[in-house]
Amino acid sequence: MKTGILTSGVSQDFERALKLVRADGFRYVEIQYAWGAEDGSRSDQQEREVRRLLEQNHIKCTAVMRNIFSGLSLDDTSPGSLRYQNELEYLRDSIRLAKSYGCSKTRINSFDRHQVVFGYGGAENHLTDGNRIWLKFLRLMEPVCQIAEEEQITIMIETGTNGFLHTAALMRKALDELMCDRLMALWDPANCLYSSEIPYPDGYERLQGKIAEIHIKDLKICKQLASITYCPVGQGMMAPYLKDLAAALHRDRFQGGVILENQVMPAGGTEEEGYRLSVPAFRNIFIRNTK
C-alpha cells in the first residue's frame, strides 16, 4: 500500500506541509488545498510551484481531490442543466491536472445525501418517489463513466458523510450496476460509520476489489444529536477496527493509497497541531502493523 498524507490537513503552506510529510517518512500525498486554493483552482504559476516542490521533495501525488458534484441536489439536476455540465468541465480540468502530476486518479463526490433511497411496503410512495432517485443517479453517472474510459483514468467516488453514496453497501451497489472498470471507490470508513456501517470486516469486504484509495481519520459520533467530533487516530470510534483493517490490507497486498486525512484542529490551534496528534498512531498501525 502507499501510505500518505492529505497536505491540506497539515498546512495550507504547501512547502511547509511537504517538509513535515517528508520528515515523517511519507512519500505520497493528496493535496486538495494549497495556499487556500483547491485543486483545479490554482493559478498556472502556483501549479508550477506545486510540481517543483513535489519533485524537490521526491514526493508523488496519488490523486486529484477537487470537490465535484459535492452537495449538488439530485432532485434539481438533469443531464442538460448548466450546473451539471459545468461540473463535467471541472472533472475534465481535474483529469488534466492529474496527468500533469503523473497520477492516474481523480476524485468526485456523489451529490447530496438522501436519508431514504429505497422504500418498500408502501414507503416508496411516501419517502422515495417510487425509488426513482437511484435510477436518476445512475443516469447522471453515465457521462462520468464515458469520460473515464475516453481519458483512460480512474475516477474515484468518495463515500461522503453528506453524500448520496454514504456507505460501502450503497457504493458497491452503484459500482456493480454501472459496470465501469474505471469507476472505483475512495472509501472513507469513518464517514460510513456515521451511517452505522461497521468498517471492518463489513465495509471492507463489501468493497474489496473496488477500492482505489482509502481515507483514514477518527471521530466520535452522537447520532441522536446529529453530531460529529473529530479526534486523533486511535482515540475515537474507529479505534476497534484500525489494526484489523491494516492487517487485511497487508494480507491482501492492497496497492492503492491509504491517506491520513487530518481534520482535527485543537481549540485555538492549527491543522499542523492536529496532524501531529494523529500521525504517530497512523504510522504505527498502517506501516508497522503486519499482523
From TrEMBL:
<keyword id="KW-0413">Isomerase</keyword>
<dbReference type="Pfam" id="PF01261">
    <property type="entry name" value="AP_endonuc_2"/>
</dbReference>
<protein>
    <submittedName>
        <fullName>Sugar phosphate isomerase/epimerase</fullName>
    </submittedName>
</protein>
<dbReference type="InterPro" id="IPR050312">
    <property type="entry name" value="IolE/XylAMocC-like"/>
</dbReference>
<dbReference type="GO" id="GO:0016853">
    <property type="term" value="F:isomerase activity"/>
</dbReference>
<dbReference type="InterPro" id="IPR036237">
    <property type="entry name" value="Xyl_isomerase-like_sf"/>
</dbReference>
<feature type="domain" description="Xylose isomerase-like TIM barrel">
    <location>
        <begin position="19"/>
        <end position="278"/>
    </location>
</feature>
<dbReference type="InterPro" id="IPR013022">
    <property type="entry name" value="Xyl_isomerase-like_TIM-brl"/>
</dbReference>
